[in-house]
Amino acid sequence: MNDAIREITEALDQQMELNFFMASKLIELSPPSEHKRLKKELHTRLSILRERTLKATYALDVLTSDRKPARTTFFSALKKWFTGG
Questions:
Q1: CA torsion, points 4, 5, 8, 10, in degrees to nearest 10?
Q2: For every one of its 85 residues, what pLDDT tens digit does the chain have, with 9 covering 90 and above?
Q3: If 0-12 CB within 10 Å is exposed, 13-18 middle and 19+ buried, where does residue 70 land?
Q4: Quick one: which of 52, 42, 60 has its CA closest to 82?
Q5: What are the angstrom distances between the C-alpha of 55 and each of 6, 32, 42, 44, 52?
Q6: What's the confidence (pLDDT) of residue 64?
Q7: For 1-67, what is the HEC assignment?
Q8: Handedness of CA 12, 13, 15, 20 (dihedral sign)
């Protein structure tokens, strides 16, 4: 089960990295007049997605709390930052 959870959380990490990359490319390729609006919209959407992903990651960590932590990657750092830990 720990291996499956680790695989899921690694996939979530990769997906978030891809989302940020794609958002920056989308802004880069958009007309200059759209940059500000698009940055704001994408920031809002990615923030909501990141929050939901962190909640899911935290839930997975709780499920494995009696075992070795499932991760020490990007989302762990973000989780600490969001929770002040």
A1: -110
A2: 778 777 888 888 899 899 999 999 999 999 999 999 999 999 999 999 988 888 887 887 787 776 555 555 666 665 565 566 5
A3: buried
A4: 52
A5: 15, 35, 20, 17, 5
A6: 74
A7: CHHHHHHHHHHHHHHHHHHHHHHHHHHHHCCHHHHHHHHHHHHHHHHHHHHHHHHHHHHHHHHCCCC
A8: positive
- Compute the distance between CA of residue 81 and CA of residue 85 in angstroms, rounded to an integer: 6
Rounded CA separation 28/85 (Å)? 34
Q: Which residues have CB under 8 Å from 33's CB, separation 6+?
A: none
Cβ neighbours around 3 below 10 Å, total: 8
Token digits for 16?
């978030």
